[in-house]
Design goal:
Chain E: This is High-affinity branched-chain amino acid transport system permease protein LivH. Chain E: GO terms for molecular function: transmembrane transporter activity. Chain E: It is found in: Cell membrane. Chain E: Belongs to the binding-protein-dependent transport system permease family. LivHM subfamily. Chain E: It is a multi-pass membrane protein. The complex is a heteropentamer of chains A (393), B (235), C (238), D (344) and E (342). Chain A has 393 residues and is of the alpha/beta class. Chain A has 13 helices and 14 strands. Chain A has helices at residues 18-34, 55-69, 80-93, 105-113, 129-132, 134-145, 164-179, 198-207, 219-231, 250-253, 270-283, 289-313, 318-329, and strands spanning 3-11, 38-39, 42-50, 73-75, 97-98, 155-161, 183-190, 211-215, 237-241, 261-263, 336-337, 347-348, 369-373, 376-381. Chain B is α/β, with parallel strands linked by helices. Chain B has a single domain (3-231), classed as P-loop containing nucleotide triphosphate hydrolases (Rossmann fold, 3-Layer(aba) Sandwich), CATH 3.40.50.300. Chain B is 40% helix and 26% strand. Chain B contains ten helices and ten strands. In chain B, helix 3 (94-101) runs parallel beside helix 6 (138-151) and helix 4 runs antiparallel to helix 6. The longest helix of chain B is centred in the last third of the chain and has 16 residues, at 168-183. Chain B is globular, with a radius of gyration of 17 Å. A six-stranded mixed sheet of chain C has the order 6-7-8-3-9-10, with helices on both faces. The N and C termini of chain C lie far apart (37 Å). In chain C, helix 3 (95-106) packs across helix 4, helix 3 packs parallel to helix 5 and helix 4 (115-125) packs across helix 5 (141-154). With 344 residues, chain D is mostly helical. In chain D, 71% of the residues lie in helices and 1% in strands. Chain D is built from 16 helices and two strands. Chain D has helices spanning 12-19, 24-35, 45-68, 78-96, 100-121, 127-147, 149-152, 170-192, 194-204, 206-211, 216-242, 252-265, 271-290, 297-312, 316-325, 331-338, and strands spanning 158-159, 244-245. Chain D has a two-stranded antiparallel sheet with strand order 1-2. In chain D, 59% of the residues are buried. Classes of the chains: A alpha/beta (393), B alpha/beta (235), C alpha/beta (238), D mainly alpha (344), E mainly alpha (342). Chains A and E meet through helix 1, strand 7, helix 8, helix 9 and helix 10 of A and helix 3, strand 2 and helix 12 of E. The complex binds adenosine-5'-triphosphate (ATP) (2 copies), leucine (LEU) and magnesium ion (MG) (2 copies).
Chain lengths: 393, 235, 238, 344, 342
């Protein structure tokens, strides 16, 4: 194979989410090694595009990868804010990009405002928070309804990283909370690098906040939040969406994470478990299903698309890949499922109605709610998947 | 011989100021260096004190070669230097400055003895012992600098222009205190603009011009020397 | 004509009264010597007048106008120049550039047509012993004081303060400085000079002001003050 | 103050060059920069992108040097000031529909106002205190940009329309080269005038300057305002070239980049930073992009260069040039390097 | 006599230090009453940590005239050292929960951080500051400042190259229930971090004020030639000072590892905060720096409480600028002009 196809992998390889970047890198390398970096008579050259968790730097790096390294397609991405800015770059250079995790509404709205232009920003790897984050509140409401937990008053607070993701997830919690009769004490968004939350948490405690819901994509920040939540003596329920987005979170929270809620897909199939073992053996860390796992599925789905494009056109470049994306992926013709070797979700499937999101639901793409104890998560929601009942501290 | 300077060449960077300067001072002597501005008097002192390392030549003190030693090492050998710029510790009090002068002395009671001695010489300093050195007037600072130089009980004192900026009365008292030191067996090398005064108080003198020793001899003789009279006293 | 007048000028530093209610006058053409023991407050006194360290209370009147607390740059443009006890050069500038600052900025706009020539003239006037292109940081104290003087004169002052200009001069050099002071005075500039060298004071000053502990103890014609027993006791010694 | 050459026996070419503050070699350099994008490999888009960044840093370092090199105050919030210009410009285009060109100038005005404020409040401070004040000011401005999400979108990033409706980097390149030169020219004019003398005087000795009749308030504030105005316009360029702004642009580490170039180039020369920026930043970009598996290596090299320069050659490139290169024996070469020299 | 004292107290109250201390105390008490005792606890703990970093910074600035921009990187070195020492210890503890290391392991890690910082400081002096000092003739403050800027960039990126960009953190040093003070919970880690910083700062103050070496350090800070004249070995004092200052920062980094995991730029925030403190309180005054540290901590905590998360740069820096306008040499700064004016 003497033809080369440069592919950009966008991720936070340095900066506060570097751990997730590591997981991306492992997934991509493993998936590529499995096909020996070849599709048809093309050798795939992986170009790492470091977003550094900053939209401006990411856009610059992406443009440079296009101009300098000539990438013909791109895959993955961690942050919404980055997605919002890189979408334009992809559109400007007409480079198809698949499976970015930038989830928030801002991405969808932007996409829907000009589907033609943003057809280069292919199906996302993560749906808008409203589709999944509301599950927490639904779960909590059930718990209150069946009497497992009786909060003194229905006072909640929302926290999150100050990014499109944090705010958008915060918005989803707020809506769901207000709808079920909670009062919101305050909403706090902090820089993605913050690790000192004592003042903030003490404030919540003294206000008598019973339910604290929020998220962060930066592991150091969220693990610190969880740990300090326990330390200052908060007694309520903590939703820490994303704690499990790095596999080794327990090394950083310790028992502080007991009783915390999170929503993380599980490694259920033997392939999935094997994959996790392989990663541990080769890279020395426990991968997170939501980060390493999803990105592994993402890159493998992308390879499937490449194969398809090669099959149809005999040629791989930005146009052929884009065509397949538009014609077959976004229409739901080409999907990636357990049958293809997906390890995390049952099926990754896009339809014109849901674009740029995928089809969400227990049979397709879904996150159960877990409660942690001693470093292990147990599914407490939905009912069918339940492993344990919700427990109060 | 207490101090012997031989063929000293020194300067700043590439700029040579001193050319083959040689001096000898015996124990207990009171020696003066006179010369016009920029002759290199201060440079000579700085070189002896170890603040400038010489290009060539040697400095022997108490039979020990101290050429090229650092300033602090020289100070530990018993040479104290009262510089023209005074180099006080501006954010320390008068008393702290004086204690620092006795840095090489470890015993507390010896330090206090020296302190009393200095306060006796300069009652003004005693009055102001808690004032920060940086807030003192020019003349007060000069006193403090001299006082600090005396604190280490040196065997040789290099004193650069002690009367610079001092009121007549104080000038008199500074010279008087130098006399006291001489009587206490301290050796003094004095640089002073006031040629008449210098030659009147010292026993021996050197005339430095353009970085070279021009004349040397008994102070009394020098004062009578016609060249000195013509050049320095304008007679 | 009265060039400068102070009334009860006082300057305090925290608890210390460095200048205590000093009133004095300088007449046109005077060369006033300001003497006093070290730490008497002489430098502080002229700093208070020239604006570098504004007075705590009291009044300053220059050329008939009240100027209490004006900034040094305003005072300079009004015609007051000064030199510093501890030379205060522009370390990286050449001699001629240093003088040009005052030529250009110290004069009311437009007066000097050729600043370079004027500055050169000033350096010659003070008999500056070095080349005009020498950089200030390479000068020694005495040369710096000359440069300082040239800078002070470059703004064409009507009143000049000199703070210990002659310290560190040999007897021979004192003669030069006397001649220069004489030339300055001939230009019609009134002078207030702080000095410890009595030889110089007695030779050039027509009036003396003596302060001690910040308080004026004598003011008047030179001989009279010099013979004043209070002054003898406080300052000159026996 | 440099002797202004009103030498009448200079020929027209020399006189024009002198007015334009250029030497023949400077002119040659400028021409080289203008034809560079037609010479391979520099004609590739990504190289141009790097060169544009070089130009941005070059121009910024000139503006920075006006304060650092002439009144001896390091404006440690310089990129924050530039960022303010960028945000102002971007917001005016987005919300008021202004043309980016006009908005860029408005950005300059907003930064000038900021400069005026920094200049005023740092008046009584000297040296490192003034630097810290401008630093804190920069941090505060950056903090505001982060927190005023409703206006700036904070860390989410603000998309801004580009100056030219094209994918190509060519027009941006020429624009930044023009900006580099204009910045240099304007600053040079100022420091050649009597203002330059006043700047140096207050930098070197405040008391002496004041007693020589120089009003430090005016000159310091003027200097700050002007240098910040330059940063504002350049910030506008930045916004409308990259097409996205995040408060990250205002970060101290970005100012450090400008400052390093200005100092490696040589403080107080104005041209040093501008000249050094091109090869230096360009090389750093090459290192960064070719050794991307070693993230940060370029910055390690960058830091090493800065450290070595500060220790062994604190005068920077311009000092080196002035002492070792500027005065060759050969007369033609000498003319080439210096232009017609004024007779002193 | 007592009347005299009264008037002395009154002048002090009207002075900048008096005024600002009184205002700070009043604000702290009022806010505590309003919000709850946790506010005071947070302020005290944060202040203690800041004091540690800030005294090191004042030392560099006051004694050596080095406006240290790389100070945060020594904090980082401290946390990195502590991390690599404590990780094996904590694994050992997991297997041997009764070992003496449970109590003393953390101290070993923190001590390691201190030593690591001191060594790093000494190396920096030998490789970087020393050469500069021997060559530099003028412009020392600015040149050394830029040097530390370079040093900061260098250390950050070396960390990234060698140890990676990810966050290296620990669960905590000491296990056990948080202590409750008036309803405010404070974990053992935080309490001990505060105690460690308090002890170290106090020792350091005593050292600087009363020992011969401490006095020598101060002397060097004010006039190097003068210090040399009286027989102080400058090289030794400088080396000692830099090591000390860096060790102070590093021990802060080490003892705070439970809260600030080690990553390349972890030093930035402590650096900013320490500079806030130093500029606010003025130079060369250890007690001033300590008081300043608590003031900045108060500002930070109050901002968090009443303005919201993420504002803790804007509000304190704005306030500090305001204070500087009125008191340019800082609240506790001395009026004597130092070298930094140049
Ligand atoms: N740091 C320096 N760098 C360069 N040259 C210097 C330095 N210090 C002094 N000089 C030069 O060295 C020469 C001798 O200076 P020095 O201070 O020794 O003279 P001096 O005899 O003490 O004069 P004065 O009576 O003025 O004190 C002078 O020409 C002076 O300009
Ligand atoms: N900034 C200041 N803070 C506190 N005290 C000061 C300050 N400046 C001067 N002083 C004090 O004020 C007094 C007068 O000082 P000043 O410098 O005016 O004396 P002087 O008459 O010029 O003496 P000299 O002849 O020694 O120069 C001195 O006691 C000095 O210590
Ligand atoms: C959970 C996520 C990976 C979401 C993504 N970080 C975002 O910003 O939308
Ligand atoms: Mg001398
Ligand atoms: Mg005086």
């Amino acid at each position: 194979a003497d033809k080369v196809l440069p592919v950009g992998v966008l991720g936070p390889f340095t900066g506060p989410s570097a751990q997730n970047g590591k997981e991306f890198q492992a997934s991509v390398e493993m998936a590529m090694e499995a096909i020996d970096y070849t599709v048809g008579d093309y050798t795939i050259e992986v170009v790492w595009v470091d977003s550094q968790s900053d939209p401006a730097r990411a856009a610059s790096a992406y443009a440079e990868a296009v101009e300098g390294k000539g990438i013909q397609a791109g895959v993955l991405n961690w942050h919404s804010s980055v997605a919002v800015s890189v979408m334009d770059v992809a559109a400007q250079y007409k480079v198809p990009h698949m499976f970015g995790f930038g989830a928030s509404e801002v991405v969808n709205e932007k996409w829907q405002a000009d589907p033609e232009k943003y057809s280069y920003w292919g199906g996302k790897g993560w749906p808008v928070p409203a589709k999944l984050e509301g599950n927490y509140i639904e779960c909590i409401n059930e718990v209150i309804a069946n009497g497992t937990w009786t909060p003194k008053k229905k006072l909640a607070a929302i926290y999150g990283e100050d990014t499109d993701w944090g705010r958008s997830a915060g918005g989803a919690y707020k809506e769901a909370l207000l709808a079920s009769g909670w009062e919101i004490y305050s909403e706090e968004y902090f820089p993605i690098t913050q690790t000192d939350f004592y003042p903030l948490l003490s404030k919540f405690k003294s206000a008598g906040v019973e339910l604290l819901a929020g998220t962060s994509t930066a592991a150091p920040s969220l693990t610190a939040f969880v740990k300090q939540y326990a330390e200052v003596g908060n007694k309520g329920v903590l939703i820490a969406s994303g704690l499990g987005w790095i596999g080794d979170w327990y090394k950083m929270t310790g028992p502080g994470s007991d009783y915390v809620l999170d929503s993380i897909p599980q490694l259920t199939t033997p392939e999935a478990k094997q994959w996790a073992k392989d990663v541990k053996a080769k890279y020395g860390f426990n991968p997170s299903p939501s980060s390493g796992g999803l990105s592994y599925d993402g890159i493998r789905m992308f390879i499937k698309i490449l194969n398809r494009a090669y099959e149809v056109y005999g040629k791989l470049d930005k146009e052929t890949i884009h065509n397949i994306m538009v014609d077959e992926v976004n229409t739901g013709k080409l999907t990636y499922s357990k049958a293809d070797g997906a390890i995390i979700m049952n099926e990754y499937k896009y339809t014109p109605e849901t674009m740029p999101d995928m089809v969400v639901g227990p049979e397709a793409y879904f996150f159960p709610i877990l409660q942690y104890k001693a470093g292990k998560g147990h599914i407490i929601f939905p009912e069918d998947w339940k492993q344990k009942d919700f427990e109060m501290k | 011989m207490l101090l012997e300077v031989k063929n000293l060449n020194a300067g700043y960077g590439y700029l040579q100021i001193l050319r083959d300067v040689s001096l000898q001072i015996d124990k207990g002597e009171y020696v003066g260096i006179v010369g016009p501005n920029g002759a290199g008097k201060s440079t000579t002192m700085k070189t002896i004190a170890g603040l400038i390392s010489p290009m060539s030549g040697s400095v022997v003190f108490n039979g020990e070669d101290i050429t090229g030693l650092s300033g602090s090492a020289v100070a530990k050998k018993g040479i104290s230097f009262v510089s023209e710029e005074m180099n006080l510790f501006v954010n320390m009090t008068v008393q702290e400055n004086l204690y620092m002068g006795a840095y090489t002395i470890k015993e507390k009671h010896l330090k206090n003895e020296r302190l009393d001695f200095v306060f006796e010489l300069f009652p003004r300093l005693a009055e102001r012992r808690k004032q920060l050195a940086g807030t003192m007037s020019g003349g007060e600072r000069k006193m403090l600098a001299i006082g600090r130089g005396m604190m280490s009980n040196p065997s040789l004192m290099l004193v650069d222009e002690p009367s610079f900026g001092l009121a007549p009365q104080l000038t008199t008292s500074v010279f008087a205190s130098l006399d006291v030191l001489i009587k206490n067996g301290v050796t003094i090398l004095l640089v002073e603009q006031n040629v008449t005064k210098t030659l009147a108080v010292t026993g021996r003198g050197y005339v430095l011009e353009n970085g070279k020793v021009g004349l040397e001899g008994n102070s009394a003789d020098l004062a009578e020397n016609s060249y000195v009279k013509k050049v320095f006293l304008g007679v | 004509m009265i060039v400068l007048e102070t009334q009860n000028l006082t300057k305090k530093f925290g608890g210390l009264t460095a200048v205590n209610a000093v009133s004095m006058t300088i007449n046109q053409g005077d060369i006033v010597g300001l003497i006093g023991p070290n730490g008497a407050g002489k430098t502080t006194f002229i700093n208070a007048i020239s604006g570098l360290n504004p007075p705590t209370s009291g009044m300053v009147k220059m050329f008939g106008k009240e100027t209490t607390g004006l900034t040094p740059e305003k005072m300079c443009r009004l015609g007051l120049s000064r030199t510093f006890q501890i030379p205060s050069p522009f370390p990286k500038m050449t001699a001629i550039e240093s003088v040009m600052t005052a030529t250009i900025f110290g004069n009311p706009a437009g007066k000097i047509t050729d600043p370079v020539a004027h500055s050169r003239e000033m350096l010659e006037f003070v008999e500056f012993p070095m080349k005009e292109t020498v950089v200030a940081e390479q000068l020694n104290t005495v040369q710096l004081k000359r440069l300082d003087l040239a800078r002070a004169l470059a703004s064409n002052p009507r009143l000049l303060f000199m703070d210990e200009l002659a310290s560190g001069l040999s007897e021979g050099e004192l003669k030069d400085i006397m001649r220069i002071i004489d030339k300055i005075s001939k230009k019609g500039i009134s002078i207030l000079m702080i000095e410890h060298i009595m030889q110089l004071i007695m030779a050039v000053c027509n009036r003396l002001l003596c302060i001690q502990f910040g308080t004026k103890i004598a003011e008047g014609p030179t001989q009279e003050v010099a013979n004043d027993p209070k002054v003898t006791k406080a300052y000159l010694g026996e | 103050m440099e002797p202004t050459t009103n030498d009448l026996n200079m020929n027209l070419f020399d006189r024009v060059l002198d007015r334009l503050c250029l030497t023949p070699i400077g002119l040659a350099g400028l021409i080289l920069l203008l034809i560079l994008p037609f010479i391979p490999p520099f004609n590739q888009e990504y190289m141009l992108r790097w060169l544009i960044y070089c130009g941005f840093v070059a121009a910024m370092s000139v503006g920075f040097d006006l304060t650092a090199g002439y009144i001896n105050i390091v404006n440690f919030g310089y990129m924050a000031v530039a960022g303010t210009g960028g945000y102002t410009s971007a917001l005016l285009v987005i919300n008021a529909g202004l043309s980016p060109w006009i908005a860029m100038l408005a950005g300059g005005v907003s930064s000038a106002i900021l400069g005026l404020i920094i200049g005023m409040i740092s008046l009584r401070l000297r040296g490192i205190f003034a630097a810290c004040l401008s630093w804190f000011f920069g941090l505060a401005v950056m903090g505001l940009a982060i927190k005023m999400v409703w206006l700036t979108r904070g860390p989410l990033g603000l998309r801004t329309p580009r100056l030219f409706e094209t994918e190509s980097n060519f027009p941006f390149y020429f624009l930044i080269i023009i900006l580099v030169y204009l910045t240099y020219l304007v600053c040079k004019w100022v420091v050649r005038s009597k203002m330059g003398l006043a700047f140096q005087a207050i930098a070197q000795n405040m008391d002496a300057a004041r007693t020589s009749g120089i009003d430090p308030v005016f000159y310091r504030v003027f200097n700050f305002t002007m240098s910040c105005a330059i940063a504002g316009v350049l910030g506008g360029f930045y916004a409308h070239f990259y097409g996205i702004l995040t408060p990250d642009m205002m970060h101290t580490s970005k100012t450090v980049e400008i400052l390093a170039v200005a100092y490696i180039g040589g403080r107080g020369s104005l041209w040093g930073g501008a000249v050094v920026a091109f090869p230096f930043i360009f090389l750093m970009e090459i290192v960064r992009s070719t050794l991307s598996h070693l993230p940060g290596l370029n910055l390690v090299i960058y830091a090493l260069v800065l450290i070595l320069v500060m220790i062994y050659y604190p005068g920077g490139f311009s000092y080196f040039y002035d002492t070792h290169i500027r005065q060759p024996k050969n007369r033609a070469l000498r003319y080439f390097l210096n232009g017609r020299e004024a007779k002193v | 006599m007592s009347k005299h004292n009264m008037s002395d107290t009154l002048t002090w109250l009207k002075s900048a230090p008096g005024l600002s201390i009184v205002i700070s105390v009043v604000v702290a008490v009022a806010a505590t009453i309003d919000a709850g005792p946790y506010l005071m606890v947070n302020m005290v703990v944060t202040g203690g940590m800041l004091a540690l970093v800030a005294t090191g910074l004042t030392l560099m600035l006051g004694v050596l005239n080095i406006p240290m921009f790389a100070h945060g990187e020594y904090f980082m070195i401290g946390s990195l050292t502590a991390y690599y020492i404590f990780t094996p210890i904590s694994e050992f503890i997991l297997e041997h929960p009764d070992s003496w290391l449970v109590t003393f392991g953390p101290f070993i890690a923190i001590l390691g951080a201190l030593i690591g910082g001191a060594i790093a400081g000494a190396i920096s002096e030998k490789l970087v500051f020393g050469p500069l000092r021997r060559r530099s003739t003028d412009n020392w403050v600015m040149n050394s400042f830029l040097l530390t800027v370079g040093l900061s960039v260098l250390l950050v990126n070396l960390h990234q190259l060698i140890f990676g960009a990810d966050f290296k953190g620990i669960v905590g040093y000491w296990q056990g229930m948080p202590i409750s003070i008036a309803g405010a919970y404070i974990s053992l880690d935080r309490a001990l971090a505060f105690i460690i910083s308090a002890v170290i700062v106090a020792l350091f103050y005593l050292f600087m004020t009363y020992t011969r070496t401490g006095m020598a350090i101060r002397a060097v800070s004010q006039d190097i030639t003068g210090a040399e004249i009286v027989g102080i070995d400058i090289e030794k004092i400088v080396l000692l000072t830099i090591s000390l200052a860096c060790a102070l920062a590093a021990v802060a980094g080490g003892s705070l590892l439970f809260m600030y995991p080690s990553y390349p730029t972890v030093g930035l925030e402590p650096l900013y905060m320490a500079w806030f403190v130093v500029i606010l309180s003025g130079l060369g005054n250890i007690l001033g720096a300590v008081a300043g540290a608590f003031m900045v901590a108060l500002l930070k905590v109050i901002t968090m409480e009443y303005v919201g998360a993420g504002w803790d740069f804007v509000v304190p820096s704005a306030l500090i600028m305001l204070i500087l306008i009125f008191k340019p040499s800082g609240i506790f700064g001395s009026d004597v002009r130092g070298v930094l004016d140049k």
